[in-house]
């Protein structure tokens, strides 16, 4: 399964995303993703050291600024 | 709804944008967006810690330098 | 009007540009712009805190390193 | 062998990846790679000075933020 | 004249280039440029505060990491 | 000769590469390069102040994160 298909397979699940130049991690439910890895997430929160820092709600992330993403271990 | 369509759906609304390498957040009304997430915004202000820092007015933002954007909660 | 058309509409006018990783702002007259937002500007100066820092003259800016641009308020 | 083919040839092997703006190295087993060097890795760990720092498991890495990758010497 | 044509018009001339994340400026003679603004330069030197810091000779610069370039005022 | 052809012409030779966000220089023998300047190098070492810092061996470098490359003067 190619990387973009792997991301598609995470739609509807909770994921963690590290963005370029950001110290903190974003967690939320993946609503949609395109082939550039642009992401639409809802219920998004910014996490620092395991603590909620900020509630962002519905966000769009620009794919080229994603360092990595992975499914959230619950 | 794909991420670029989600952004299109925000045209006419107030949004918040985090840009790469910027400490501050930009707030303004989204006038137009293309598939690269290049944005045209008006009534744009730069916000730091909830305070207006600078009035920018009409601005064009380069999509690849957007970290994330979300609708402004009012 | 899409963001790239908005930029085209600024040809011949004085604009301000913030570049990635630059503290200072570039001001100059926009001569041409393409769809990647690569810009050719003349009479360009580097501005820091409202003061001219350096005269650059005719410059080409790489579009993907533009954070934002706006028409210069005169 | 072109660079993207070299990466394809590493599928199934353990690799090391340096990401842009990250101090630490990611190590894991390469599951898939596309022509943009987007990578899907499993059993991924974050390494600092030869020590495991964090277990990440299954991750997708955005190709344009990869500085370099090489096969892990065992 | 579009920005890429402006760069083409500088072939054979001495130019100055500011690269992303570099403190210093590169000066050299432009041998060739493509539409991505990848550049081949010869007799290239690294300049800091008007002083030669390092002689680089023949170099290839990746276009997307160029902040700006301009003809060298002699 | 366009910049990508210049790079092709260096295949089989020892080159130096400066990567974005890296303090150190990579030296190695260029095995292959594509039009995005993705590079495959072997016998790669990381150099700091003229001293070998780390042996990397066979590496793939992502083209968009290359600042500049030049043939190694021997």
TrEMBL record, chains A, B, C, D, E, F:
- Stated name of the protein: Small nucleolar RNP Sm protein
PROSITE patterns cross-referenced by the UniProt entry: SM
Q: Kindly give the SMART domains that the UniProt entry links to this protein.
A: Sm
State the species of origin: Methanocella paludicola (strain DSM 17711 / JCM 13418 / NBRC 101707 / SANAE)
Q: Which terms does the record give in the GO molecular function aspect?
A: RNA binding
Which InterPro entries is this protein grouped with?
LSM_dom_sf, Sm, Sm_dom_euk/arc
Q: Which residues form the Sm domain?
A: 2-74
Matches recorded under Pfam families: LSM (PF01423)
């Amino acid at each position: 399964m190619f990387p973009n298909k792997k991301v598609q397979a995470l739609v509807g699940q909770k994921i963690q995303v590290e963005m370029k130049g950001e110290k903190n991690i974003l967690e939320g439910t993946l609503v949609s993703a395109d082939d550039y890895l642009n992401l639409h997430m809802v219920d998004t929160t910014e996490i620092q050291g395991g603590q909620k820092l900020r509630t962002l709600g519905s966000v769009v992330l620009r794919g080229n600024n994603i360092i990595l993403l992975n499914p959230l271990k619950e």
